[in-house]
Design a protein that fits this description.
With about 325 residues, this protein is α/β, with parallel strands linked by helices. The chain has eleven helices and 13 strands.
């Protein structure tokens, strides 16, 4: 396999790139900065913006598959910034596939494209795109996913994966925020009994992408389709957060907050940030408040059937690996 991984500077993109490299595949990467963890013998790194078509095409030269992981994530900011990275960037990847005659494309999407502010319990891929998008991220990821699926043809096989709430050693988003808030005494659990969510361990998400690459071909069962990717172990958010805190050697959090109050805080915070044109992401928004108060777990049957995906790292084993990595920052996930 000769693969280009976009967004290899990120948590998932970097993990995919390193996994392919360890397999012996030829790996090109495209990311904005220079990252020591990508400086591996034989790994070819390109620095550049996914929104610059020429740079994407250069990075893709000689490849036979693209893992398009790069994206502008978050819940705050200017729409055009999200559009430029998520939609225009995806258009550039599709253009590079045509120019370089690349026959396979794995796109990393998000379950948020179907989230409408209510519970997602056992949802499968028949769920429609949300009619109530609350963030620019949702809107642009949904548009990009549509582009990728529509591009599936006899010359280019495409598939979209929707991993939910990535975590594990090397996490630069979820875990650092939880630890920071816990240490400053600002972490609260949302009082939402019975609400469960499924968070996918990083190695399982990587496995799903590699399995999709192996299964994908023009006319294959997975071509032109999208798949939810999870750990298959829905748990209460409180259990997940406190397990992460335990792995970090911190005390569990017990203080709770009413979900309606949290939503109100998000609305007021958004209004304040908008009024004063504050670019920094708010500590709370209505979208985050709704996500924390709802169930998020998905039917993984289609991924098992068409990709052969079965999560190999359990929550318990993942937490043990996370604890070991936090105790020794040089340690990588298995």
């Amino acid at each position: 396999m000769k693969a280009l991984v976009t967004g290899a500077g990120g948590f998932l993109g970097g993990a995919i790139a390193r996994a392919l490299w360890r397999r012996g595949d030829t790996v090109h990467t495209l990311q904005r900065g220079r990252y020591e963890r990508l400086q591996q013998p034989g790994m070819i790194n390109f620095q550049g913006d996914i929104a610059i078509a020429e740079r994407v095409s250069q990075a893709a030269e000689g490849c036979d598959i693209i893992f398009h992981v790069a994206a502008r994530a978050g819940v705050w900011g200017d729409y055009q910034d999200y559009y430029r990275s998520n939609v225009q960037g995806t258009e550039n990847v599709l253009r590079a596939c045509r120019q370089q005659q690349i026959g396979r494309l794995i796109y990393t999407s998000s379950p948020s494209v179907v989230f409408d502010g209510t519970d997602d319990e056992g949802v499968d891929e028949s769920a429609p795109y949300s009619h109530h998008m609350m963030t620019h991220y949702q809107r642009t990821k949904a548009e990009a996913e549509r582009l990728v699926l529509a591009a599936n043809s006899t010359a280019l096989a495409t598939v979209a994966l929707r991993p939910h709430l990535l975590w594990g050693p090397g996490d630069t988003q979820l875990l650092p925020r939880i630890i920071k808030r816990a240490r400053t005494g600002r972490l609260r659990l949302v009082n939402a009994p019975g609400k469960l969510m499924d968070a996918v361990y990083i190695d399982n998400a990587v496995d799903a992408h590699v399995l999709a690459a192996e299964a994908l071909a023009c006319g294959a069962a997975c071509a032109g389709k999208t798949y939810f990717i999870g750990n298959g172990e829905p748990v209460a958010m409180a259990s997940l957060i406190n397990a992460m805190l335990q792995a970090a050697g911190l005390d569990p959090v017990t203080k709770t907050i009413n979900p309606r109050l949290l939503y109100g805080i998000g609305a007021v915070t958004e209004g304040f940030y908008a009024l004063f044109r504050i670019q920094q992401e708010p500590f709370m928004t209505r979208f985050i408040a709704r996500q924390l108060a709802c169930s998020h777990w998905y039917d993984l049957g289609a991924a098992a059937r068409d990709l052969g995906y079965t999560p190999r790292v359990s929550m318990a084993r993942g937490m043990a690996a996370l604890a070991a990595a936090l105790a020794d920052p040089q340690r990588e996930s298995a």
